[in-house]
Amino acid sequence: MQVTLKLYASLGTFLPPGAERNQVPVEVAEGTTVRELLDSHNVPPEACHLVLVNGVFQAPAVRSGVKLKPGDAVAVWPPVAGG
Amino acid sequence: MGWARKILRVNLSNGTVKSEPLNMDWAQKYLGQRGLATKYLVEEIDPKTDPLGPGNKLIFATGPLTGTAASTGGRYSVITKGALTNAIACSNSGGYFGAELKFAGWDMIIFEGKAPKPVYITVVDDTCTIHDAAEIWGTSVWHTDEWIKKKHQDPMMHISAIGVAGEKQVLYSCIVNDLHRAAGRSGVGAVMGSKNIKAVAVRGTGGVKVKDGHEFLKATAAGKKVLQENAVTGAGLPSFGTQVLMNVINEAGAMPTRNHRQVQFEGAHAISAEAMATPRKTDGKPNLLTNQACFGCTIACGRISKIDEKHFTIQNKPQYWHASGGLEYEAAWALGSNTGVDDLDALTFVNFVCNEQGIDPISFGATVSAAMELYDLGLLTKEQTGGIELKFGSTEALVKCAELTGKAEGFGKELGLGSLRLCTKYGRPDLSMSVKGQEFPAYDSRGIQGMGLTYATSNRGACHLRSYTVSSEILGVPVKTDPLTTEGKPALVKAFQDATAAVDSTGLCVFTTFAWTLNDIAPQVDAACEGGWSPERMLETGERIWNMERVFNMRAGFTAKDDNLPPRLVKEPAQTGPAKGLVNGLDKMLPEYYQLRGWTTDGVPTNETLSRLAV
Fold first, then answer.
1. Rounded to an integer, what distance in angstroms lies between the CA atom of residue B418 and that of residue B434?
2. Contact between chains at A81 and B511 (C-beta distance less than 8 A)
3. Inter-chain contact B231–A77, Cβ cutoff 8 Å?
């Protein structure tokens, strides 16, 4: 199934070639979790401060348990702020 | 100490200046800057006075840590009755002006009355002089800055000035210091213009004394270590600036788009921090050149940008070819997503114009957005806009509107009224996305519920800097809360409001609070100032300030009916994203908020509350 991986700010360096606008479509197996997706792109867990699936925050404790669905968008940031 | 213990009072009507001792009893209750200057204002003006009349006063105020070795200790605020809102106004700015005013030996300057003709003021240590401003009236902030430095042969002066917008009293005009830092909101620039003050130039050669130098250096060094080691203040903000929020807030479905018709913008990435750092296709250079720090700041979140010289906005306009203050998130949102424009260099140009002529990009962008909706609905015609095709997404229209509003010419005069007066004129006040007449910042409160209560109850009108619950609801600082629920938000908003009022009274930047709590700030204040400043005392001071501002507004004529949101946000559900189907639940939050504040069900502070806080 296909999902979209979005890595922003300093995490943009972990995007594979071909990514545009800080995002890339990726093929993953059924049952892949958020954490497995990030691990497959070598994104360090400690750098993943803000993880949103379809815009909804995923706490660190659930990232290894949440299974992705076709079409999901996983967006990740290191610690950032603004205002 | 910390305080200089001296106030400069400038009476513009009769051309006198005098030095007064700072009221130290008030300093012990209201600390400095926002709190202390507001105390002076509420004691000295009629709350019902016309903000643009001579009865209003304009106060430039530093905090006790302004000009010290504390990180970010360079802030000053402008306190007055707001031209845009008719409510209490306090606009905070960085740069170097605040520290320089303190080095000259002053805690604050109170301007009263109205000069019979345009003037500018110089403050060089103890000497304050009122000068004729005929040669610079009608010119920009940038020209004024350069002219005054040349005139006085002193490139080290730091200058706060208004542009043509402030002179002509565009109601959201601001006061710009150091070329591109601004006391931005509520129309403080229009008040300055109404008093015929073009600029205030300061030069100080003294220092700032603190109570215990050894303890102060220990406390400030500890604070700097915390900022450096924190991932947000030590890495995130300096690298990407506030603009990193563009994709965050868009992804979270809280990005106000096209006057809040939508909550996500398809062009968000093109105007984001990531885009600013990416080389342009046109010239191979990125929009962002570097970051920049204000006085004493160890975060350095400021953006310095340069527009492609071949971009249509600056062709044959060399005055814009240099590097200058780039887009912050609030400006990028208001000028971009809210108008549907995704041309990064065009937004940077409009931001330059806002700095050059002194207009608040938040209220300007939101007013253009409201006008675009009026145009879309056929309530505003091309004839009425002076030929501008004011369509959502039109870069050319946005640029033209900025140039006109900066000089208050043509249709820019109408845009200069702000969205509420503009929309009221054309029969649809409900299309103004504002509270107490001030336009929303960059967070849709259907997707971040706490921000609805923040906006509705903000004493200076809609504002994110009075209680930035985004920090908790989206960013997880200090703890993550669910942005889509109302539970717990009244207490969260109150806590943010009180703590922020205290921080705004110190001379420090509120951005430190992404890493610092009052437990980090209080030791720095306590080492600088007499009186015993604990975190608990600072929080109580913040609550006192909040209630004082509230009482001023009520005496000015505001009631609980003004603690409200536009119908769109409480009746029209979000169409996409996590908040799809949601409206803001203000009605669920407001009663609990009043109760937590110790106010009546009508939002009036009780005598018991005012007595407890000694307001």
1. 10
2. yes
3. no
Residues B152 and B18 in one domain: yes
> CB burial class (10 A; 0-12, 13-18, 19+) of residue B150?
exposed
Residues of A whose CB is below 8 A from B273: 9
ipTM of the complex: 0.98
CA distance to partner chain A, nearest, from residue B395 (Å): 21
Q: Is residue A62 part of a domain?
A: yes
Which residues of B fall within a CB distance of 8 Å from A59? 480
Query: Which residues of chain A have a CB within 8 Å of the CB of B270?
Result: 21
What is the pLDDT at residue A83? 82
Q: What is the pLDDT of residues A11-58, one digit of tens each?
A: 999 999 989 999 999 999 999 999 999 999 999 999 999 999 999 999
- Taking residues B460-488, what's their average pLDDT? 96
The amino acid that residue B382 corresponds to is: K
- For residue B441, give the 3-state DSSP assignment: coil
Residue A14 lies in a domain: yes
Task: Indicate left, alpha or beta for B93 from its phi (over 0: left) and psi (-120 to 50: alpha).
Answer: beta
Distance separating alpha carbons of residues B546 and B542, to the nearest angstrom:
6
Question: Using CA atoms, how far apart are residues B358 and B199, in angstroms rounded to an integer?
Answer: 12
Q: How many domains does chain A have?
A: 1
3-state secondary structure chain A: CEEEEEECHHHHHHCCCCCECCEEEEECCCCCEHHHHHHHCCCCHHHCCEEEECCEECCHHHCCCCECCCCCEEEEECCCCCC
Chain A residues whose CB is inside 8 A of the B331 CB are none
Give residue for tokens 């709350």.
B47
Residues 174-233 of B with CB under 8 A from A: 230-233
B122: Cα separation from own chain's centroid: 24
Instruction: State how far residue B242 is from chain A, nearest Cα, in angstroms.
Output: 4
Q: Is residue B521 part of a domain?
A: no
Helix (DSSP H) and strand (DSSP E) numbers for chain B = 25, 17
Residue B286 pLDDT greater than 90, yes or no = yes
**Nearest-CA distance A58 → chain B (Å):** 11
- In angstroms, the CA A55 to CA B297 distance is 33
Closest among B258, B437, B221, B230 to B335, alpha carbons compared: B258
Interface list for A 20-79 with B (CB within 8 A): 21-22, 49-50, 52, 54-57, 59, 73, 75, 77-79
Q: Is residue B167 part of a domain?
A: yes
CA nearest to A78, candidates A53, A45, A36, A35: A45
**Same domain (yes/no): B564, B454:** yes
Number of domains in chain B: 3
Taking residues B165-171, what's their average pLDDT? 98
Residue B476 lies in domain: 449-514+534-613
In degrees, rounded to 5, the angle at the alpha carbon of residue B486 between the alpha carbons of residues B482 and B490 is 110
CB within 8 Å: A6 and B251: yes
pLDDT confidence of B90, banded at 50, 70, 90?
Answer: very high
CA distances from B240 to A14, A20, B276, B512 (A): 17, 18, 9, 16
Whether residue A19 lies within 8 A of chain B, CB to CB, comes out as no
- Residue pairs spanning A and B at CB distance below 8 A: 95
Q: Is B27 at the interface with chain A, CB within 8 A?
A: no
Q: Are residues B459 and B427 in the same domain?
A: no
How confident is the model over B580-595, as a mean pLDDT? 98
* Among the partner residues A55, A59, A80, nearest to B253 by beta-carbon distance: A55
Q: Residue B387: which residues within 8 A CB-CB, separation 6 or more?
A: none
Cβ contact B32:B64 at 8 Å: yes
Residues B276 and B421 in one domain: yes
Whichever domain contains A37, its CATH number is 3.10.20.30
